[in-house]
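User: I'm putting together a teaching handout on how multi-component assemblies are represented. Below are the sequence lines for each component of a complex, exactly as they appear in our records. Could you produce the 3D structure of the whole assembly as structure tokens, so the students can see both representations side by side? Please keep the chain order the same as the input.
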Amino acid sequence: MANKSAGWEQFGGRGRIASRPDVTDPSMSPESSALLNRALQDRERLAVLDAYDIMDTVPEEGFEDLAQLTALACATPVALVSLVARDRQWFKARVGFPSCETDLDRSVCKFALAEPDLLVIPDLTADSRTAANPLVTGEPRIRFYAGAPLRSPEGHTVGSLCVIDTKPRPNGLTATQAGHLRRCARQAMSLLELRRATVEKAVAVGSRDAALRREGHLAILAEASAALLTASDPSRVIEPILETSTHSLGFEQCFIYDLAPGGRSVRLTGSIGVDEAMRAALADIDLDKPLCGIVVQTGQPLVLAHVQDGPEPRYAMARESGVDAYAGYPIRSRGRLSGVISFGSSTQGAFDEDTLTFFATIARYLSAVRERLDGEAALRASEMRSRLAQEAARIGTYEADIASGLMTVSPEFCRLFGLPVSPLLSVDAATDRIVPEDAHLASTQASREAGTTPPQATYRIRRADDGAVRWVTRTASFVHDSEGRPVRMLGTVQDVTEIQETLRLLGENQERLRAADQRLQVALVASGVVGLWDWMVDTDLLHGDANFARLYGLDAGRTEAGLTMEQYQEFVVPEDLEPLRARIRDTFEHGADFHVEYRLAIPGHDLRWVECKGQLIHDPDGQPVRFSGTAVDITERKTAEARLAASEAHWRGLFERLSEGFIVGEVIRDEAGAVRDWRYVEVNRAWGELVSIDPARAVGRTIREMFPGIEDAWVHEFADVVETGRPVSFIRQVGALARWYEGRAFPLGSERFGVIFLEVTERVQADARREGLLEFGDRMRTDADAAEVVKAGAATIGRVLGVGRVGYGTVGPDGETLVVGDGWSAQGFPALAERHRLDDYGLYAEDLRQGRTVVIPDVREDPRTKATAAALDAVSVRALINLPIVEKGRMVAILFVNDDRPREWAGPEVAFVRQIAELIRQAVERRHAEARQDLLNHELSHRLKNTLAMVTSIANQTLRSLSDRGPVETLQRRIQALASAHDLLLRRNWSPAPLHAVCEGVVNNAADAGRITLDGPDVALGPAAAMSASLLLHELATNAAKYGALSNDAGHVDLRWSVEDGADGPDLVMRWQERGGPPVVAPTSRGFGSRLIRTGLVGTGGVDTAYNPDGVVTVMRAPMVEVQRT
Amino acid sequence: MMAGDRDDGPRPVVLVLQDEPILAMTMRDFVEEAGCEALVVRTAEAAIRILEERTDIRVVFADLDVRGSMMGIKLAALIRDRWPPIELVLTGALPPNLDHIPARGVFCDKPFREAKVVAAIREFAT
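Assistant: Of course. Below is the structure of the complete assembly, with chains in the same order as your input.
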């Protein structure tokens, strides 16, 4: 529409003016203003508008087209699809209006909210409601308004389709224009409905997506758990598991770093979605660069959103790599940070809560894996170190990390090389000491990586501190990772200068013997770990060598001289003393091998573990004379063992800390080998919370013992996992608990399986409620009968909530009698009698009368029903919801929900019942209103026809004296024609009647079927036109029967009609043509009949009659608009 | 063509049920026009009393709209059950469900079309 004046533009530039939600219009009466306000603020109306989710959306073609069409049809410069919210009106589509919304002060559409049909204001300046409207008094000076309400199927008006003109239109819209406006409004409403259906579908699809992602998480946790429980090296398993699922999990990149020895850089050890160049760049990178460095430095998880938008310089590297959302978590092992796992996404700005929880869990898993591996390696290393220690004398030990070239060394190692004592050295620091002549004997990075360094080498070094040249024998062993690659080299170094000197002096044959002997001696003496002891029975003194003395922190001279057993035992920790004494008794009394471990608490030293072995030495008579053996310091081994145990505990604790429930189960088979049940081997704390049972009670018992009567699927599905070795996902209810679980079950080898699961009861129930509402909405629209609607609603509630009985009863005017109609009850649930007295069931009846919803979880507990619990029990009611339906302040009906078990009614469940109840109430009310209307129409028609019958009777009686009965019969027939048209309209509830049926009614009264042929398109006549057409055709038929084609036996009438272009839009043209009658004579007189005919179809003429010789032809013409006017 | 065709012997008796005096007048006229004698009652109960007392009723001409404890179509069904030979000519403002009209019953719409009503009575009564 090009009819834009400067004023429109000017207005458009001003934008929206601050709104006042409270509309007080000085031009309106207080009552109507309040009424309008209530309509505007009606929460249900606003909820419906919300459900269309249309406010402030982009323009759409469908609505734009409708606005264009409407403007065209009504010949106005402006047409708007206007939606009226609480405080403003917003235009989904607009023609000729520059602003996309206005506040309510400027709204005319708001008045359409209260109108049942079109709101037409011919001159806005003359209407009290709009005369002061700023759009009327100022630019753009609108003058004419016509709007059709946009009414939702629930009966709420959400806005209007309106047309506006700048000139007043005293006659408003023509009938055609009004019809167009209504039709277009209906069309706009259909578009809105379509939109709502789409929105509801989108919500359903969205929740399904979230469910899928959750299922993905569970599946991965399940696989990772299986890896932790079964694989020897789970860390290698996690990477491919994550890799296949990046898409469903919502990240594209994952980095796993190790903290390099020294702690100043990190090394990428695993990655997903990272290219070669990036991997190379991260192979060993300073902590200051990547985000994971922050995780290392703080030791805390780091979660960032919208990294790309921020200027933070510390995030530069992440920004350059395209990461927008980031989450990094520390990996800890043996109490310190050993690495970082991080996740990144460039396609989403932030990770959601679910995903972050999942990441955190994966990080915890990795920590557990690392802990376990480190624990095992430490144990292996410590055992080896002890062994080596016992083999060598004056030894230094080392443990080299091959990748970094750094090694952990003992103080002796440092002293041996003349280096300052430090726990950490580079390998080079040691190999650099080797004299050039022997340099070829040194281990190299290559030989270390390949594991080919010879197990033993002897070379000369130049001591760093005093420059002395010493002979050193170095041994080497390797610790391999699960794939057999050497990761650490460990071993000893020993100063063998004296041995070398001896060797040089002695002959080669003797050399080996002596060397071996000496090495043993040296080892025993110098390793400091093996002590010798000898207990002389006759003196009762125990003699120990220097090492034994050191072990006990005693002076070597004293132990050599001998001390009593009690003097040594003074250092043994009290709990270990009794077992030690028991072992000694066993040896003396029964000759048992002596082997015992105990702890020594020596003042000024850490607790020391000692392993003691020994035997009794007897004299030739068999009397014990000596008891001697060795004592070894095993503190290091014990510590490693304790660490491993702690790591096992930590790893189990991981499952304990999971928020997901976790089960390890073992199947139980019958004699035929079929799985009948399964036993809980292990459950975690979350399991207990999710099923509300103490976890301690479950272990060792079977699921059928724990949950008698549980669904067989809980056994069969997990049996399948064991049989097929394939994991499965499930969402299933434990009926006895009325709770839903979603989870993943996975095989653990032999007869075992693991299950990791979440409770999803709320989600499943919310889905069921939403689907129930949608489904019931459909039923409501299709079911004609109020009782059917009630039954469908009751069934929906019953099914969704899983209760025993749902019903709808009407309450008598006394507020006391309840008459229960057809409802719904679960199979086997007893039905309810028809009539009840509310007060028989407890004091809650009063709450209902006050319009309050009554929700009782257990009738035996609630003070309102305690006393009447027996009466309720008699009708199988233990828990209930009663919802009063109130009309005009009086409770007219109750929707009740019953169950025979106590039950906590959740808030959303009560809300759901309330929603359905409200829908039922609306449906019932609408059906009742329709029924009342039908009854009224019926009665009216009844009386009208009785009256017509009496009119004819009176006419009959009055004209009884007339000898000519002709006019009397004519009168009777005319009245009958009127009555038959009336009949037709009544049957169609005064909606437009098909022209064919109108003609048929008349023709059947007037002539034999077959003598009049009817033919024409489907045209509907408005009530007025139907009435006058009936009378008119009746006269034509009467004339034909008297004088024309129907007055003999051969004549025939064709009655045909069509819709043709007329001067002012389409016309209905009807043509009555007689044939085969007696010769035609034009009538001379003009009676009522011919005058009636001339008034035409709609009382405005348009009738031509030709008295052709072969038969009368009457052509009637009237504008369609008039013919169809309702 | 009045009742003169059959001057000899009593005329057939038609029981008319109608509580509206003006309509009753017209219905009586129709009956007489058909050459019969009309006996008008105002309630269904009265009609049944008459039927129980008299055996010469050949036709019942009843308005289904007559108010009373036993209305319209129920009365027709009762008559068909208890006095099977009696013929029924029924009228009313609204056509009843045709399935409910007892066998051999004729329904004449209101307002009356004299010719149709008279023909029906004459056919049944003679």
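A couple of points students might notice: Residues 253 and 274 of chain A are 6 Å apart (CA to CA). The domain at 663-759 of chain A is CATH 3.30.450.20 (Beta-Lactamase).
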